[in-house]
Amino acid sequence: FHLQYEEYQLYQLKQDKVMLNDELRDKALYGGVTYQGVLFDSDTDQKINLLATVNAMSDTDTITWYGMDNQGLLCTKADIIAIGGLITELHSFCWQNNAYIKEQIEGAKTLEELEEIEISYDRTDT
C-alpha cells in the first residue's frame, strides 16, 4: 500500500509540475518582446498583423507601431521584420524549453528527482 501511495503521489506531483510548466510557458509567451525600448505584444495575432503589414510596405515606408503600453515607435519595414523575428525566437524558445522540461518531469523516478527539476523561462541570450 505504501508503494502505491508513493507512486500516486509522484504521479499527482508530476501533473502539478506539468501544469506549472505550462502556466510559466504561457506567461513567457505572452509577456511581450522589447525592441528599441518598447514592449510589444508577442501573441500569434501580433505575428499575423506584423506579417500583413510587412507585405503591404515598401522598403522606404514607415509606420507607427504601438507597444503594449500604447507607446508608439516609428518603424521601417526592417523594424517590423525585426519585431516579428523577436516574437518568433521567443515562441521557439518557449516551446522547446517546455518540451525539454516536460521530458524531465516524465522521466523523474522519485519525488527528489522531481523536486530538483527547475522550471524557468528566463532567457540568458537576450
Q: What class, by secondary structure content? A: alpha+beta
Mean pLDDT: 93
What portion of the residues fall into strands of 2 or more residues?
A: 5-15%
Q: Percentage of helical residues? A: 55-70%
Q: Low-confidence segments, ≥5 residues, pLDDT <50?
A: none
Beta strand count: 4
Shape: rod-shaped
Number of helices: 4
* Cα Rg: 20 Å
Question: Main sheet?
Answer: 2 strands, antiparallel
What is the CA-CA span between the terminal residues?
Answer: 49 Å
Strand order, sheet with most strands: 1-2
* Secondary-structure element order, N to C: HEEHEEHH
Describe this structure as you would to a colleague:
This protein is an alpha+beta fold and 126 residues long. Helix content is 62%, strand content 13%. It is built from four helices and four strands; from the N terminus they run αββαββαα. It has helices spanning 2-29, 44-56, 77-107, 111-116, and strands at residues 33-35, 38-40, 62-66, 72-76. The strands form two sheets. It has a two-stranded antiparallel ribbon with strand order 1-2. A hairpin with a 2-residue loop joins β1 (33-35) and β2. α2 (44-56) runs antiparallel to α3. The radius of gyration is 20 Å and the shape is rod-shaped. It starts with a helix and ends in a 10-residue tail after the last helix. The relative contact order is 0.17. The model has no long low-confidence stretch (mean pLDDT 93).
